[in-house]
Specification:
Length: 133
Amino acid sequence: MTKARWSAPALAACALTIFAVAGTAHADGDSAAGKTVFRKCVACHTVQANKHRIGPSLAGIAGRTAGTSEGFKFSDAMKAFGADGKIWDDATLDAYLADPKGVVKGTKMAFAGLKDAQDRADVIAYLKAANGE
C-alpha cells in the first residue's frame, strides 16, 4: 500500500476551499434573525419609507447611493462618501456596520458597530427583505 502525498499547491487549494465554504455561512444572512439584531438600531432608524428618526430611514437602502434618502439631512462626510460613488451593496453595508466611523470618517452615526459577522449578514438580509415595510 502506498501513502498518498499531497503537494503544497494541492494542500493550499484544499485549505482555501474549506475557508471559502466556511466563509459563505456568514455571507447568507437570516432576515428573521436580522430583525432581532435590528432592535439595536431602532432608536435611530426605521425600515419604513421616508420615516426618519435621528438617522435616515433604511427602507430601500440596498443598492442606493450612500448619503441619499429623501428628506434626510446627511452629514457632509456621508454625502461625500456617496458622491465618491459608494453604493450600499452587501460589502459596503457589511464594512460600515462593522465600523461606521472607520468607513465614513466624520459620520454623525454614534453607533460603535456590529462586531459579529453573522449579525451583520442577518441585518443586511433583514434590510433587503423589509424594504419599506
